[in-house]
Backbone:
């Protein structure tokens, strides 16, 4: 199993599709667009909303859109939104338990950060720095360079048709006579 | 829960004690010296041995010692020995499943590494680089700078007494008359 969960992967892919979505996209539409589990995605999007990365527009034809520009959403923002600022290493202060110390560790032994923890903090900082240095906009631009010119419009069209269908569904429901039991 | 397990922490602390242990230290002695679970440590040391970081000397007065100089054992070596080169991110190639593609993703969509995966690989590389840049010898030297001059000798003495007691225990057993049922 990898350190980062599949939820981080789903979150990042969803956010990438939202960069140029045009209309708000529902959780279900985003799941179907990507062929991923709708129930898992339904748990991920509220976490992105809570972290201020997406906002939801209510109503049948509502959905999610980015809450700020794609240049201002880093990979680190997304990882922290999903993983909750999970540390690389959880120091249990084992250094205090040395049998030679007897009942109580001397002051020198607990001064400053544990040397092992310090290295782990350096490694974590290096990882977080790399994640902070890349934004959704960077990866979106890289995909756009690879994709045919028509691709972005095709995806927009797919999402817009879904969006329109949801609105039409609602209008039909509104105009329909009451159901006779 | 942190990304790296408590086993990595136990492994690093054990290896640090072995830098200047003098005599081979048994798994049980290392656990008692540090106040950590002997049964957990008994699963960790064989993994360090398999990775070539420690070697075991057989017999009652045997135990573990470093298999190479502390300058040549990096934090990355230890993390990989315990976690088995666990990736930061496990790319599921979600990019291939886009509904717009229909049955089969076009060649452009799967060319090269997925853009999201590429950022994760950069972050992983940054983390691994930081872990590779620090050796057991670095942290051992930092601890030695903090500790009183006598500390290292106290720990050696503790381990040597344990080592001698194990040898004496064996000699007693050898010299003892057969047990009468």
Residues:
């Amino acid at each position: 199993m990898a350190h980062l969960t599949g939820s981080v992967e789903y979150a990042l892919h969803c956010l990438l599709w939202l960069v140029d979505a045009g209309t708000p996209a529902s959780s279900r539409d985003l799941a179907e667009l990507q062929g991923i589990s709708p129930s898992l995605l339904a748990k991920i999007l509220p976490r992105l909303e809570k972290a201020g990365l997406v906002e939801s527009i209510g109503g049948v034809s509502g959905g999610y859109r980015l809450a700020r520009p794609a240049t201002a959403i880093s990979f680190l923002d997304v990882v922290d939104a999903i993983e909750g600022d999970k540390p690389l290493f959880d120091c249990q202060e084992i250094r205090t338990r040395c049998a030679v110390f007897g009942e109580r560790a001397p002051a020198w032994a607990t001064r400053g950060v544990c040397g092992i923890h310090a290295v782990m903090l350096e490694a974590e900082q290096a990882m977080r720095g790399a994640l902070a240095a890349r934004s959704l906009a960077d990866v979106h631009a890289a995909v756009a360079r690879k994709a045919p010119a028509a691709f972005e419009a095709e995806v927009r069209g797919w999402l817009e048709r879904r969006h329109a269908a949801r609105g039409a569904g609602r209008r039909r429901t509104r105009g329909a006579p009451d159901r006779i039991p």
